[in-house]
Hints:
By secondary structure, the chain is mainly α.
Amino acid sequence: xxxxxxxxxxxxxxFVIPLFLISYVSKQDDFILSFSSYSIAFxxxxxxxxxxxxFSIQIWKSIAFVLFLIPLFSIPSLSPDVYRFxxxxxxxxxxxxxYSAIPNELMExxxxxxxxxxxxxLYAEITELSRRNYSIYxxxxxxxxxxxxxxxxxxxxxxxxxxxxxxxxxxIGAHYFFKILELLxxxxxxxxxxxxxxxxxxxxxxxxxxxxxxxxxxxxxxYFVLKNKWLKSSLFWAIAINIKLTPLILLPFLIRFRxxxxxxxxxxxTFLFSSALLLIYLWPSVFSNFMQSIELYFxxxxxxxGIFYLVKWITSFFIEGNPTLIVGPTLSILxxxxxxxxxxxxxxxxxxxWLNRMMWGYVVYLLFATTVHPWYVILPLxxxxxxxxxxxxxxxxxxxxxxxxxxxxxxxxxxxLIGIEYLILLWFLLFxxxxxxxxxxxxxRIG
Length: 447
């Protein structure tokens, strides 16, 4: 037993050091440092999975809580998105609607904004694309931004405040995550596959991405669906939608899981709650501005899109001009059709099957998407725990190769990294009985 504790403490130290380097030393274009550090942390994470049954779940919960505090005092190293978050919150405290004007305009025409030293410091860190466009963040996100802005006009204090709010939400989500595991009679030790995954620490706590917050509210919604409490479940599903719209993708999977009448009732509740939350910020006078930003996101962003890049390259030999205008919408339609097939092709008879099908639906959405940032994998990763899908688990490692873009740009080596990511991912997803999967399950003591 003493040797087990020594091994655990040594592993924790080996986990902390690389995450500390990512949080406090590495920069967005320091790909070698950030990826090598993340690789070490991920290997230690796999060790945690292997020994998860050697220690009580209370010990793992305590370890996870402490590890999530690693980036608490850091300035985001891999993404500047938080500066726009804080900017939006500060605008509301000044009586300015975050959808009403773009940062560039405000810096030129609003003396209150221009003369604020804090707003100037935030503006300096906002990306050029974000400066030229309206906010894209829905109501629930804006609540988090506003609370941080009300607490302080100091960057470090605001970052800590926002992290504390996010951590509190993650604890709520974790509570219902454990309850779902118990409800499904899945070993509670399997929670280690999620709560100690370094991508959550790096991308949620480190870089302030709200996919983890969305997943937390979704877990609450899922739990109440499993308990047949439709009003509560639709409320929390709506909150998840008002963090990021993509939980809408998961709604069709309910129809084959519950009776049609119940599903329609759930959809109506979810629509009403979503509309009420959305309209807190989305006033008629700023609706077109918000939709302009949504359209910009879907039409102009391209990042780490494996299948999209491949199809775009092939069609470039046959299509004059920019093939993106054809390939992007076509893949979106194909993804939509495929998701509906997964949702409807046969009845969903068990709770586990429902969660597994939703996971596959979201994976399909990401595989066909034009933009797949590393934090996007957090939602399917959370759902993958219930079926122990190793493909999605290892994607949370492979997807960090996409940060090579900031070091190598659109060079051939950058595309090689993306090719490696998707080839290995598809091998795990499409051939779940290959020797690597079997070996991984044996080593990790899964299944």
